[in-house]
Amino acid sequence: MRIALGLLEARARTEHELRGALAARQVPGEVADLVVARLIELRYLDDESYARALTSSRVRNSHRGQARIRRELQLRGVDAEVAAAALGEIDADDEWASARTFAAKKIRSMRGIERVAARRRLQGALARRGFNSDIVLTVTREALGEWDEEYGS
Question: Across residues 105-132, what is the average pLDDT?
């Protein structure tokens, strides 16, 4: 139990991640099951809370869209239904604002390149961040409109 609590202190983990960490430390499966069950009972381990916190953090601080966050939750072993519920709590305005913030930052680094190349790079960057096509196209159009005002076409 002490090992498991030590693993949780480093950062929050999902049940899947904790089981993997315990297996890496060669903790027997039966013991790991008991530890995980106890940590869930004590609410030290809660995939739903973890998914909500990660989702909120990624949208607001890391400027990521739903597709990218869904993949990250999946890689961390969060159940698809739990991930969908957490993603459903994302405020659409927050996701749009996140995309706009990222685009504004990205477009500043593109001085001196052609508008067509800037469009392609910005769209690719937004798509890799996991934003849907509506957000990618609209935010790119807005950012390039500001680009025209500031840098000329």
Answer: 93
